[in-house]
Structures are given as C-alpha cells and as structure tokens.
Amino acid sequence: MRVSENTAFSKAIDYVQKSKMNLEKAQEKVGSLKRINKPSDDPIGMVRLLKLRAEKAKISDMNSNIDSARAFLNVSDGSLDQATEVLMRAKELALRQAGDVGGNEVTRRTTAEEVHQLANQMLKISNSKLGGRYIFSGFRTNTPAFTEKGTYKGDGGEIKIEVSDKTFVPINLPGNMVFKGQNRRDGEAGIDILGTIESLETGLVTNNKLLIQDCIEKFDDCLNQVLFSRSIIGARLNSLDNLRNMHAEKELGIDELVSEVEDADVYKAFSDLKKNENVLKTTLASSSKLIQPSLLDFLR
Amino acid sequence: MSLGQIMNTGLQSMSNAKVGISTTSHNIANADTEGYSRQKIEQVTKRPVVRQGVTIGTGARIKNIKRISDDFIERQMREDTSLKGTSKSTLFGFSQLEQIFNESGDKSVNFHLSKFFGSLQRLSENPENGAIREMVKNSAFDLTKAFNETSKQIVKVRDNVDDRIQGLVQEANFIAKEIASLNGSIKHLQSLGKNANDLVDERNVKVKRLASIIDIKAVEDESGNFIVTVATSGNIIDNTDTFELMAPGRGGSIEQKTIHLLSPNGGEKNITNNMASGELYGYLDLRNNVLQEYMGRANEVAGTIITEFNEVHNQGYGLNGKTGIDFFQPLDMMRDKKTGELYYDFSNAAEKMSISDDIKEGISNIAAGVRPSAPADNRNILDMLEIGEKKILDEGASTINEFYDAIVGSIGLGKKGVENNLSHREGVLAQLNAMRESISGVSLDEETTQLMKYQHEFDAAAKMITVADELLDTVLALKR
User: Fold this and answer.
1) Closest approach of chain B CAs to the CA of A272, in angstroms?
2) H helices within A99-151, ranges in order?
C-alpha cells in the first residue's frame, strides 16, 4: 500500500484528536466526579436517576408533613394534659365537698368559686390555638371550638395529611369528640366534660350533695375520655416516629442507589485520566516520529 | 541513422524529462490541496525507423499526463458524506433538545413540577395560611413559565433549523452552478484533446460538498456530459444547465417544511419525501418530525396538567367561599368534526400555559377545601396531590413524572444513537479517505525519487547530445 504524506499526517491528527477527546471525557468525569452529566451519557441511568430524585423529594416533603403533624398533635396532647389536671382538681374538690365531714354550705359556696375558675380554664383549653388556628375546631380553625356556654362551633372535620407514600394521618382531634364525647370511635357513650364541671358548680352553688356525688363518678368518665383521646394521639405520634425512621432508612437507600447510578468510580476515574494522559503523550511522541523522516533528510 | 537523428532523440528525451520534472513539481506543490489527485506522465516509445533492413528506435515521447484516481472510491465517499451529513444535522437537533430538556438546571420542568407538588403538600398541612397559598401560586407560576420556556426554546431551534435549511438550499444552488460551469470548461478542454485533470479534481470536491448537503447521483455519459440527479427525483445539473432547489416559506407553527426542485419544463416538483440523506434531509427530518414530536409531548404534559388540575380545583371552595374556579387558564375547546364531541385543544398547551386570572388576583381563590367556610379543609388539596400519582398519560400507562422522564430518556437515547452513528460514519469516511490517499495522494518521498530520476534522465540525454556532437566533430575532422 502506498502511504502518501496526507495519509501520515491525517492519521497522526486523527490519533491525537481521539486521545484528546478521551482525555477530555476522563477529565469531565474527574472534574464532576459524576458518571452521568447529561442524558446522553447514560439515558437509562438518567431516567432512573430522575425517578430516584423524585422519590427523595417526596420523602423530604413527607418528613416536613410529619413535623407539622407532630407539632399539631403535641400541642393537642399538651392541652389534654392540662385538661387532665383540671379534671383531677375538680374531682378532688367534688370528693371533699360531697360529704358532711369536709364540707358545708359555706365551704361549698367558696369552692364553687374555684370550680368556676376550673370551668373557665377548661373552656380555654378546649379553645387552644397553634399559630392562630383553633386546634379542636375541625376544619373551622378560624372559629373558637366552643362558646362560653359550651356549644361546639367547629365542624368535627379531621385534617388528614400525607405523611408517607399514600399514608394519611389526621393531625387534629375534633373538639366535639374530645370534650363532648360525640362520635367516639370506640363506641363507648361519651360524656360532656364542660357540662360536668358546670353541673358540679351548680351542685356547689345550690348546696346539692346528691348532684355533687353524681359528679364524682362522671369525672372518672371524663378522665377516661381524655385518656382515650390521648391514647389516639400517642398512637399517631408513635406511628409518625416509625415512619420517620423508615424514611431515614429509605433515604439512605436512595442515596446509595443514586450514587451507584450517578457517581463516577473515583479510583477508576483518576486512573482513566492518568491512562489517557499517557496515551496522549505516547501518541504525540509517535506522531512526531511518523512525520519527521523524509527522503530529503538523507539527500545532500 | 544520422547523427542528427541521435541529437533529436536526445533533445526529445531532455524535454520529456523536463515535463516529468514539471509534473513532479506540480504534484509536490499540490500535496496538500484538497481533493487533488496525483498526476503521472505516460511515456511511450516513438515509432521506429527501418534503415538498411534494421529497425531502429527513435526514442520516446509523452503521450499524456494522467490523473491517478479511482472513481469507485470517489462514488463511495460521496454516499458516505451524504450519510454523515444526515447524522451531523440530527446531532445538532438532539444536542439542542438535550439542553432544553436538561434536568440538572433549576429551569427544568421536572424541578418546578416537584416544587409545585411540594408547595401543595405544605398547603395541605395549613390550608388557611396566606404565605403558603402565595407559595403555591408562585410555584405554579414558575411551572407555567418553565413550560412556556420549553416551548419557546423548541420554536427557537426550529427557526434556527429553518435558517440553516435556507442557507443549505442556497449553497446547493450555488455549488450546482459552479459544477455546471466546470462541466463546460472540462468538456471544452477535452474537445480540444487536452487533459482537464485539475478541473476534474475541483469538480469532484464540489460534487462531494453537494453530496454532503443532499443525496445525489453523478454520472458522466459517453459524450462527456456530466449529469447530477438529486434525491432520485430529477436533474439538478445537466452538463451546463442547472435547476434550482427551493424551500418555500419560513417559520409558521405546525406546517411542514418542503423542498422543491424546478423541472426543465418550468414546473416544480416536491422532492421532500424522496430525500434519503444529506444535511438538508437531516434538518428537514429534525424540523418536520423530531422537533414536532417533542413539542407534542411537552404539550401533552402541559395540557394534561391544566385540564386535570382545573377539573379538581373547580369542585373545591376557596377561603372566600367561592367555587367553580379554574386554577390554570383553561385551554380552548374544539369540536371533533366526526363525533361532534368537545375536547380541549392541546396543540399549544405548553406555550399558552398560565395560571388563571382568578388565582392571579387572589390567593384566597385557591380552592383547598371541598366545603365552604372550613378554612382548614384540605381535602381538595389532597385530591390535587393525587393527580401526581395517577397514571393519566400515555393511555393510562404513566404518571406526569414518568411521562416527562421518558421524554428526557428518549432524547438521551436519540442523541447517543446519533453520536454513535456519526462516529461510525466518520470512521468509514476516514477509511475511504485513506484508500483514496493511498491511490491518489502525493507521497513526497516518491516525488523526490521521481525528481532525481528525471534529473538523471535529463543529464544522460544531455550527455547523449554531447557525444553526438563529438562524433560530428570527429566526422568533420576526417576531411582535413
């Protein structure tokens, strides 16, 4: 085969060009430490990557939802803790004033003052707010849950939010269930907490021992009802914790997969770079050898 | 055989060597000229004379200066140049598309889609919160802008491609005229019995450039007429006549771009669908099919988001108690001509996508609840969020995200395929070029050797004349 000058030169240029291109690719990998820098680098991998990224974004959305759910539920739980204390105090007062040993008309009248305060306190608790939202009003968070007369003004709605893929958790407890005992999900007959405190007050004011004694038993039911609500909250918080942990694990798994798909193998990337550098050097050296000699060099 | 005859032979021989040297120097000078084929003198013995019954040679003469080339390789190179042209223009398109649908940047649709759904998640926790409602509105606005931008970019690429098509058509017409004029000169020279080697080389270079633009077949008939057919449809060059290519109209939104060839009888022929390769073909395919397809897919996603969200949003109530509100500006309705059914016109959905005036004017119009006067009612938001999970595209096979990701993947695959194709074509062409060079290319070593050979020949022929001269002297001295 004849080898013309052009063949030699264009081959040399070709080789140099090729190894420069490879070197550039290796450099891009080392520079970004990523195997996929644009879709055409690995189309299938890119699609997987997009899916993984979307999953990760969803998890972070879900975690933020879990945080707000926890805040809402914790505030509810705090309120119910206070409600328990109020009820305990009311029961204690009722016990003391129910018989003739500790109570008489005068003590009952003064105790009625305190119970009135307790009733006010309970009303305040039932109208608890978080960030300007009445937490026991269902969907009507802009309206206090109860009027001063103890009428429920909320709508009993449950605000559900997504806390994990297609898993929804209500973040509130409707006030009519907690404080009025309506629509209890365990099927038990509920009790009107606000009304019970009020009737104790009436009993004390009217010096009606029977009514006061009746209240003692009712307070037990009230305490049970609050406990029931708190157990619901506890269960939800618990499952939120579990989901949170699950998400953390899942996130780790996704990170690992992302890195597997996207990241360049550092050792390989660097050794490729070195290799390509050497190839380029060798190509340059051999090209100069290929181009140099000519018959003219040997003629005088 | 006279001494004069010997002197003549020597003289002829010297002149032959001179022609050899000039050919060699022509070769050396053109070693780097594109498309140059090395030339070689064809030397033959002169007719001998018969003296006293003996046949005596009378030296050599130069019959011709020949161009060393292989037409088969030349033809093969034309075809592959055409195919490489296709890949080159297709690659241009896919590189642009890859940038438009680039998913790493924060301008991408995917990024804004996930932001939008994220903001709806936020709102589901706290539907009465004005700041979060504002955030939903803004992220929806950004999403519409991202779609608008995608559509605008594709249109921009299309305009760019249109310009390139016009440019290539002009270039093809120009080259055709140059080739036709070369045809005239070559035929004229050949009719005078002269060689037109350099002009033929020049013509080959031009034909190759024309082949890179559009697929052609070039043939030379017995009478030396050079004819070039384009896209197996008709002649673009018939010896010294040319027929123009035309690409009517620029821009337009949907209409397909076509290429026409003027015919000898004055009419014109649409050759768009007969084209099979070349840069022009690549750009046409890009414009009429590839860009149209991805624009269609972007419209599909945008249109689906608009109609699905509006349907859900219409059913809910805003903070102000209003219902029946569109979230996005609704698309135009069209009536199916056959069935008479009404449907939404998706054809410019990505370009037109925007949030509705109601949402623009008041964030309290965002319908979060399914009941009025229940500010924390988030159930309509949950329904909107569910749109992201439903397989509503691709005839029920993909979610919005999956459908969009598939676009990105398909562009990546497309580009990778074209890249491979291009590098394959380049490899083939390099191979062919090496073959061509090995036949037609100039080797300086070879030419140097030739140069020395002709120099020695010249020296020897001169010596011959000196010898003949001395002989003549001797003969003349006999008289004294």
Assistant:
1) 21
2) 105-126
Q: What is the pLDDT of residues B18-64, one digit of tens each?
A: 999 999 999 999 998 999 999 999 999 999 988 888 998 889 999 99
- Average pLDDT value for residue range B253-278: 85
Residue B321 falls in which region: left (phi positive, over 0), alpha (psi -120 to 50) or beta: left
ipTM over 0.90: no
Mean pLDDT across A217-222: 93
Is the confidence at residue B184, as pLDDT, over 70? yes
Q: Is residue B193 classed as helix, strand or coil in its secondary structure?
A: coil
Angstrom CA distances, A184 to A156, A197, A260, B327, B467, stand at 12, 20, 50, 38, 136
According to DSSP, residue B387 is labeled: H
Average pLDDT, chain B: 92
Residues of A in Cβ contact (< 8 Å) with B401: 50-51, 54
DSSP A135: T
* Dihedral angle over CA of B337, B343, B346, B347, nearest 10: 10
Which residues from chain B sit within 8 angstroms of residue A39, using beta carbons? 98, 101-103, 408-409, 411-412, 415
Please list, in sequence order, all residues whose beta carbon lies within 8 angstroms of the beta carbon of residue B206, skipping any fewer than 6 positions away. B175, B178, B179, B182
Q: What is the pLDDT of residues A59-79, one digit of tens each?
A: 999 999 999 999 999 999 999
Which of A1, A5, A32 has the most B C-beta neighbours within 10 Å, making it the best mutation to test the interface with B?
Answer: A5
Which residue(s) pair with B62 in the sheet?
A: B43
Name A18's Cβ contacts closer than 8 Å, sequence gap at least 6: none
Specify which residues B262 forms β-bridges with.
B268
Q: Which of B149, B96, B107 is nearest to B411 (CA)?
A: B96
Give the separation between CA A222 and CA A224, rounded to whole angstroms.
5
Average pLDDT, rounded, for chain A = 91
The Cα of B108 is separated from the nearest Cα of chain A by a number of Å equal to: 12
Tell how strand A160-164 and strand A167-170 pair up. antiparallel
User: In the block, which residue shows the tokens 């924390």?
Assistant: B376
CB distance A46–B373 less than 8 Å? no
> Which residue, B61, B67, B69, B68, is CA-closest to B8?
B61
- Nearest CA to A91 out of A121, A127, A118 is that of A118
Tell which of A72, A135, A295 to mutate to test the B interface (max B CBs under 10 Å).
Answer: A295
B102 neighbourhood in chain A, CB within 8 Å? 38-39
Higher local confidence (pLDDT), A22 or B1: A22
Contact (CB, 8 A) for A251 and A59 = yes
Give pLDDT tens digits for A126-156: 999 998 999 999 999 999 999 998 899 999 9
Cβ burial, residue B255 (10 Å; 0-12/13-18/19+): exposed
With H, G, I as helix, E, B as strand and everything else as coil, classify residue A264. Answer: coil
Alpha-carbon distance of A136 to A146, in angstroms, equals: 9
pLDDT digits over B108-145, tens only? 888 899 999 999 999 999 999 999 999 999 999 999 99
Helix (H) or strand (E) holding B42: strand B39-45
Predicted pLDDT at B1: 59
Neighbours of A254 (CB within 10 A): 17
CB-CB neighbours of B163 under 10 Å: 13
Taking CA atoms, what residue in A is nearest to B377? A139
Whole-structure pTM value: 0.85
Distance in Å, alpha carbon of A154 to nearest chain B alpha carbon: 9
DSSP structural state of residue B196: -
Greater confidence (B446 vs A7) lies with: B446
Contact indicator for A49, A261 with CB cutoff of 8 Å: yes
Q: Are β-strands B60-67 and B216-220 bridged in parallel, bridged antiparallel, or unpaired?
A: unpaired
B117 and A61 in contact (C-beta within 8 Å)?
yes
Q: Is residue B478 exposed (0-12), middle (13-18) or buried (19+ Cβ within 10 Å)?
A: exposed
